[in-house]
TrEMBL record:
Identification of the protein by name: Amidase family protein
Amino acid composition bias (Low complexity), ranges on this chain: 128-146
Lineage of producing organism: Bacteria, Bacillati, Actinomycetota, Actinomycetes, Geodermatophilales
Record family assignment: Belongs to the amidase family.
A Pfam entry, by short name: Amidase
Amidase domain: residues covered: 5-160
Chain intervals for the UniProt region annotation (Disordered): 117-168
Amino acid sequence: MTAVDVVRAHLDHIDAVDARVGAFRVVRREAALAEAHAIDTALTRFALPLAGVPIAVKDNVAVAGEVCTDGSPACRSGPEPRDHPVVARLRKAGAIVVGITRAPELCLYGTTDGPGTVSRNPWDTARSPAGSSGGSAAAVASGSVPLAHGNDGMGSSGCPPRRAGWSR
């Protein structure tokens, strides 16, 4: 299979399940397919450990060209000029960012209930996937992506939020 085939299959799955699960704030369909095509045509693709693997990124880490809201409609400052180092490393390994996952407002609450949508546990939608990385957890648990970025919004997990120690 090509990276485009894999990414397209995951995007189709997101289309089928995300209305019920609410894992994603943004799905990067066209951008992800373009990134997958670039992986497929790269001469170095066989040396990339994550070549063509679809991933999701929590909405408190910068993805170039996307708006990072930290789970709050008040934080919309425009598209990010560059990737956070975590995203840059994942992309350097060949991962394809298919979407930005939901986070609670300012990533402070234990329930992922962003504006207009609540992320749900895909195995029991009456329950929350919990935590500030609930959107990422729901994305993986629903089979929408095999890998998703998550962190502790306050930085205690050792994976710093978008602005900690990194300036735009």
